[in-house]
Specification:
The protein has 17 helices and 20 strands. Strands 2-1-5-3-4 form a 5-stranded mixed sheet. Strands 10-11-16-12-13 form a 5-stranded antiparallel sheet. Strands 6-7-9-8 form a 4-stranded mixed sheet, with helices on one face. The chain folds into 4 domains: 175 residues, Beta-grasp domain (Ubiquitin-like (UB roll)), CATH 3.10.20.30; 54 residues, 2-Layer Sandwich (Uridine Diphospho-n-acetylenolpyruvylglucosamine Reductase, domain 2); 114 residues, 2-Layer Sandwich (Uridine Diphospho-n-acetylenolpyruvylglucosamine Reductase, domain 3); 112 residues, CO dehydrogenase flavoprotein, C-terminal domain (Enolase-like, domain 1). Strand 8, helix 9 and strand 9 form a beta-alpha-beta unit. With 482 residues, the chain is an alpha+beta fold. It is globular, with a radius of gyration of 23 Å. Its EC number is 1.17.1.4.
Length: 482
C-alpha cells in the first residue's frame, strides 16, 4: 500500500496499476480534470501539478517544500508519503487564489488550455519566492508553453503574485499538513500491485539491493522523466518497477575536501547549489537542462543510467574525472564514469546492479562547459562539450575533453587530448587539436543538426574555450545556442 495527501484528503492505494500516471489518476480516478494533457512527454507544462514534501531548512526548522512537476511523467507510486496539489485545490471558500487572481487581472489566459499548468507553476514560484524576481519567474515558467498570449501578461501575473503575497490556506494549515505528512511517513517498503503489474517502494539501499536481486528484470524508477515515456509515448507495459525516490541515503549531497558525493536519486534541482558552487559552468548548464519541472523530478543518477548519447551531465562529469559507485547486494565497486558507457544504450552495469552515488572531484579551475541547442531553454543538446585542462607555465600538462551528441555514447576526445598534452597552449596548438577532433568523432545527422554542423560546432567550442581562458572577461559560458 502507498499513502499520500490529495490536498488534505488522505488517500491509501494498493491495487492501482503501477503504470498509471498522476495525470490520469487525477482525471480518471478522482474526478479532477483541471490538469490537462498537452504532449504526454514533459515538454508543454499543461499537466503541471505541485508536490509538497517535508523538508528541514538550513536553520533546522521543519517546513513543506513545494515542487512543480509534470504529472504526465509521474507515476502514482512516487506520491508515497507526499502531498499532491492540483489546480482545483487553489480556490478556497469561493475565492480565487492570488496566483489565479493575478492571471485574471493581468489577462494571462486566452484559450485557457495551458492555463492550469501556468497557474500551478506560478503557485510553486510564489511559495518559493519572497520578492518578485524576473530571472526566477522565467525559470519557473520556461517549461510551460502557451500559443496565445505571448507570455508578457503571464510574466506580469508572476510579478503581481509574488509581490506582497497574501497568506493562503496552505500557509494557515502548514502545521497541520506537516503533522499529517509525518503521520504517513513511510516506515516500510510500499507497494502498488494490480495483479499483473507491481511497483515496490523501498526505503533503504539495503532493501533496494535485496529487491533488485529478487527482481532483476525490474525497471528502476527515479524521476521517471525518461522511463515514463515508454508508457506515455510508446504504450509499453512495465510489469515490475522499483521506485528509489524514497531512499534518503541516495538523495544526500556530501562535500569533502577533495570531492562531492551525490546520491544517484538526488533531483537535479537539488544538485544545482553544490555543483554551481564548485563549478559555475556546471550549475549554469543545469539551468538549461530541460525545464524546472523536469529538474525537480529527474535525477543525476538517472541522467547517467539511461546512457543517452545526448544526456547533458555525462560529458561534464567525464571531463571532471567523475566516478560512480555501483551496488549489487552487499558488494560495491567504483568505476570511472567514462568506462560505464560501452555502446549506444549499453553500459557496464551488471544484472541487479545499480548506481548508488556519483563522486565528483573538486579543484579543476580551468573547467568549462558549453551546450549548443536550437532553443536556449528546455531543449536537448545538439552538441554538449566539456573541457578540463591543467596548465604548467603555459604548457598543457593534462587534458580531459568530452562531448555529448557526437557519438553513440558520451565520449572523450582522445586524439584531441594527445595533441594538447605536452604542447604550448596557443592558437596553433588549438587548431591542431581542432583538426584531431575529426579523428575522434564521426557524428550522425538528424533533425537537431547535421554531422558537418556538429563537427564544426565541436571545433568552434574548443576555440571558444581557448579565447575565454585568454580573455576571461568575455566569457559567455553555456549560453551558446543555434
Amino acid at each position: 500500500m502507498i499513502q499520500f495527501l490529495l490536498n488534505q484528503e488522505l488517500r491509501s492505494e494498493h491495487a492501482l496499476d503501477p503504470n498509471l500516471t498522476v495525470l490520469n489518476y487525477l482525471r480518471e480516478h478522482v474526478g479532477k480534470p483541471g490538469t490537462k494533457e498537452g504532449c504526454a512527454s514533459g515538454d508543454c507544462g499543461a499537466c503541471t501539478v505541485v508536490i509538497g514534501e517535508l523538508h528541514t531548512d538550513d536553520q533546522g526548522a521543519e517546513r513543506i517544500r513545494y515542487r512543480s512537476l509534470n504529472s504526465c511523467l509521474t507515476f502514482v507510486s512516487s506520491l508515497h508519503g507526499k502531498q499532491l496539489i492540483s489546480v482545483e485545490d487553489l480556490k478556497h471558500q469561493g475565492q480565487l487564489h492570488s496566483v489565479q487572481q493575478a492571471m485574471v487581472e493581468c489577462h494571462g489566459s486566452q484559450c485557457g488550455f495551458c492555463t492550469p499548468g501556468f497557474v500551478m507553476s506560478l503557485f510553486a514560484l510564489q511559495k518559493n519566492s519572497d520578492t518578485p524576481d524576473s530571472a526566477k519567474a522565467h525559470e519557473a515558467l520556461a517549461g510551460n508553453l502557451c500559443r496565445c498570449t505571448g507570455y508578457r501578461p503571464i510574466l506580469a501575473a508572476a510579478e503581481q503574485a509574488c509581490c506582497n503575497k497574501p497568506q493562503d490556506q496552505f500557509d494557515s494549515r502548514q502545521a497541520e499538513t506537516i503533522a499529517r505528512l509525518k503521520a504517513i511517513a513511510p516506515t516500510q517498503t510500499g507497494e502498488l500491485n494490480s495483479g499483473d503489474k507491481r511497483c515496490l517502494v523501498p526505503l533503504t539501499v539495503a532493501d533496494l539491493a535485496d529487491l533488485y536481486d529478487a527482481y532483476p528484470q525490474a525497471r528502476l524508477l527515479a524521476g521517471g522523466t525518461d522511463l515514463a515515456l515508454e508508457v506515455t509515448q510508446f504504450h509499453r507495459v512495465l510489469p515490475v518497477m522499483i521506485y528509489v525516490g524514497n531512499i534518503e541515503e541516495m538523495k544526500r549531497i556530501e562535500s569533502f575536501d577533495d570531492r562531492l558525493e551525490i546520491g544517484a536519486a538526488t533531483p537535479l534541482s537539488d544538485c544545482y547549489g553544490a555543483l554551481h558552487h564548485e563549478y559555475p559552468d556546471f550549475g549554469d548548464l543545469l539551468h538549461r537542462f530541460a525545464s524546472l519541472q523536469i529538474r525537480n523530478q529527474g535525477t543525476l543518477g538517472g541522467n547517467i543510467g539511461n546512457a543517452s548519447p545526448i544526456g547533458d551531465s555525462p560529458p561534464l562529469l567525464i571531463a571532471l574525472g567523475a566516478q560512480i559507485v555501483l551496488c549489487k547486494g552487499e558488494a560495491r565497486r567504483t568505476l570511472a564514469l567514462e568506462d560505464y558507457f560501452i555502446d549506444y544504450r549499453v553500459t557496464a552495469r551488471q544484472d541487479s546492479e545499480f548506481i548508488e552515488k556519483i563522486i565528483v572531484p573538486k579543484g579543476h579551475a580551468l573547467f568549462r562547459a558549453y551546450k549548443v541547442s536550437k532553443r536556449l531553454d528546455d531543449d536537448i543538446s545538439a552538441v554538449c562539450a566539456a573541457f578540463n585542462l591543467k596548465l604548467d607555465n603555459g604548457v598543457v600538462s593534462d587534458a580531459r575533453v568530452a562531448f555529448g551528441g557526437m557519438a553513440a555514447t558520451p565520449k572523450r576526445a582522445k586524439h584531441c587530448e594527445s595533441v594538447l598534452i605536452g604542447a604550448t597552449w596557443n592558437a596553433a596548438t588549438v587548431e591542431k587539436a581542432c583538426a584531431a577532433l575529426a579523428q575522434d568523432f564521426t557524428p550522425l545527422s538528424d533533425f537537431r543538426a547535421s554531422k558537418e554542423y556538429r563537427l564544426l560546432s565541436a571545433q568552434n567550442l574548443l576555440r571558444k574555450y581557448f579565447i575565454e581562458l585568454q580573455t576571461p572577461h568575455i566569457e559567455t559560458r553555456v549560453t551558446a545556442y543555434v
